[in-house]
Amino acid sequence: MNLFNINSQVNHITFGRGTVVDIDETFMTVAFEDGSIKRFLSDDSSALGFFDSPDNETSADIKIERIVIKRLFGRIDYDIVINNSNVSILSAPNGCGKTTIFKFLDFVLNPRMASFNEIKHIPFYSFSCYLSNGMVLNLNKVKLESDNLKKTRKSISPYNVAMSLFNNPFDITFWISGKQDNPLEISLIKTLIEEPRNGTTFLYEDDEPDYVVGHGFVRIKRWFNIINSQLIKFNCKVSIDFIEANRLQKEYDVSMRARLSRNDRVHGLNNPKLERDSERDRVDYLYLANDKAKFEIRKCMQEYNRRLTEAKNVLPSMYIQAPDQTNFGFDSFQARWNRYHEELNKFYEIGFLNSKETVIETDDLENSYNKKASFLETYLKAFEDTIEPLQKHYDKMKLFADIFNKRNEITQKTIKFTEDGIKVFIDNKDVGLKLENLSSGEKNDFVMFYRLIFDAAKNGIVLIDEPEISLHIEWQEEYLDRLIDICKMNNLQAIVATHSPNIVNGHFDLFVNKR
Predict the structure, then answer these.
(1) In this structure, what DSSP letter does residue 423 have?
(2) 3-state secondary structure 103-157
(3) Distances (CA, A) of 89 to 36, 474, 477
(4) 321-330 b/e with 16+ CB inside 10 Å = b?
(5) Sign of torsion, CA 482 483 488 490?
(6) In a domain, 510, yes or no
(7) DSSP symbols for 325-344
(8) How far apart are CA 416 and CA 409, in angstroms?
(9) Number of domain units in the chain
(10) How far apart are CA 387 and CA 456, in angstroms?
(11) Partners of 423 in beta bridges
């Protein structure tokens, strides 16, 4: 079955809680178990792979165990065994392909146009990624022989299409090996020119190679989709986040713009920076992070305020209907009351709440309890429920704030999370500092830890290229300890490429074994 032909009837295929019921070159329509219908951009591979986790907070628990690449740059062979800890260190001289290996991993685990563009011109013979579930993801670059056809308007041959696409006669093939016999080998060039099994042609009236390549974006996306379907079928779809050396700029695609624009319309946000950069390939990640934080904070604050309003509205009826007796004593009630106000205080400290006022002062609590104990029990339960939406995001935000504040103690910079996004303050004053005015080291540190804490899915894989860039020696020496803690907390696998002995800082047991 060729599921992803643009003009073909799409068979229903189920991924976790959603079923793909239609797909074309622009949209993929998914029916969910609750009866809702949602449309995703068809090149949004994250939507394709994570219907089981709509918020993309949890990934399949699959790790990389081994990487084998042959004839990289035409001359280098690597056989890299990854250690079984949460963090591994990859080190080699400049020009030996550390970043290139990351680019290949980024593509085979998350095929899309941006990652394909990073590898398509790199000389190599084969690349294999061995996963902990026993499966192996393989790429081959195959040289095509000329079929001696003249390049005319009707000369659709693999050789001519490859020359038009790459300016070289090569095909790239993908397949998954391991537990199945006769694995499906997915050829890029064949996907560009073949006819689907239902007989609907991929070609148009003008069949010359240049025309095929001119429509290659849609066709190459079909190749990605077929690969993604195989990754899902064999349980190889895992979340991967590549934190590049150029980490202050983020890959910017149509799907990202569509999602952020939709968020703006629903929640009344404004992304002027993204609007100005709408024609660029990349966007300033600090602004992107701030917009994402703003959206999440406003969403949870709206839910908190909704629950708070409901709780306040039912107070009169709660008072009238409350029984005269309660099964709890004052000491138990006071402990819960204190915990609730400690929660309010921590949300106030991090910036969620503008005040931490209470309806009943602590000194009056016992007297009020003696008068109407059962009402106060019901009252407290209602208000305890209001803070649940805040707790969902608090732990990550508190961890990020603690790391940022600790690493910036000398300059006395602190951050808070507000409905306007992430705010940086100096000397605990009310005047905020714009993110763009942070130093380059502070920006790099901000982006790395933001992506590790907020973007990386639980159980996922993170590739970090040269974390030492722009960082002070003291920050470099602390980096791996912080990274190890974050990876253990979220069961992440992080592979770090570095030249810096300060980053390693004695963690020699984390080096990968290169053979």
Answers:
(1) E
(2) HHHHHHHCCCHHHHHHHCCCCCCEEEEEECCCCEEEEEEEECCCCCCCCCCCCCC
(3) 44, 19, 14
(4) ebeeebeeee
(5) positive
(6) no
(7) --SS-HHHHHHHHHHHHHHH
(8) 15
(9) 1
(10) 25
(11) 416
Q: Residue 303 is encoded by which pair of tokens?
A: 């839910």
**DSSP E strand stretches across 188-234:** none
Are 359 and 311 within 8 A, CB to CB?
Answer: no
Q: Which two tokens stand for residue 217?
A: 């974006």
The kind and range of the H/E element at 493 are strand 493-497
Domain annotation covers residue 147: yes
Q: Is the pLDDT of residue 89 over 90?
A: yes
Of 251, 316, 289, 309, nearest to 45 by C-alpha is 251
**Pair 137, 236: CB distance under 8 Å:** yes
DSSP state of 436: G
Quote the CA–CA distance of 499 and 89 in Å, as a whole number.
10
Per-residue confidence (pLDDT) for residue 333, from 0 to 100: 75
Instruction: Tell me how far apart the alpha carbons of residues 478 and 441 are, in angstroms, rounded to a whole number.
Output: 14
Q: For 158-201, how does the pLDDT look when each residue is reduced to its tens digit (9 = 90+)? A: 887 788 778 888 999 999 998 767 788 899 988 887 654 444 34
Q: In a 10 Å sphere around its CB, with 0-12 CB exposed, 13-18 middle and 19+ buried, how is residue 296 labelled? A: buried
- Tokens 């300890």 label which residue? 481
80 is in which domain, residue-wise? 61-84+93-238
Residue 98 and residue 91: Cα distance in Å, rounded? 7
CA 480 to chain centroid: 21
The Cα-based distances of 195 to 100, 208, 355, 492 in angstroms read 34, 15, 64, 41
Q: Which of 86, 90, 94, 116 is nearest to 103 (CA)?
A: 116
The closest alpha carbon to 404, from 363, 372, 368, 452, belongs to: 452
- CA 180 → CA 84, 134, 177, 183, distances in Å? 25, 11, 7, 6
Beta carbons of 113 and 253 less than 8 angstroms apart = yes
Cβ-based neighbour number of residue 246 at 10 Å: 12
For residue range 204-232, list pLDDT tens digits in order: 333 444 445 555 555 677 888 889 888 98
Domain assignment present for residue 451? The answer is no
* Spatial distance between the Cα atoms of 204 and 38, rounded to a whole number of angstroms: 31
Confidence of residue 94 (pLDDT cuts 50, 70, 90): confident
Assign 3-state DSSP to the chain and report helix, strand, coil percentages, each to 5.
45, 20, 35
Instruction: Report if residue 15 sits inside a domain.
Output: no
Beta-carbon count within 10 A of 52 CB: 14
Q: Which residue bears the tokens 């609590």? A: 365
DSSP string of 226-277, one letter each residue: HHHHHHHHTT----EEEE-TTTTEEE--HHHHHHHHHHHHHHT---HHHHHT
Look-up: residue for tokens 């998954």? 176
What DSSP line would sit under 61-103, residue for residue? ---EEEEEEEEETTTEEEEEEPPSSSEEEE---TTSSHHHHHH
Strand order in 18-23's β-sheet? 13-15, 18-23, 27-32, 37-41
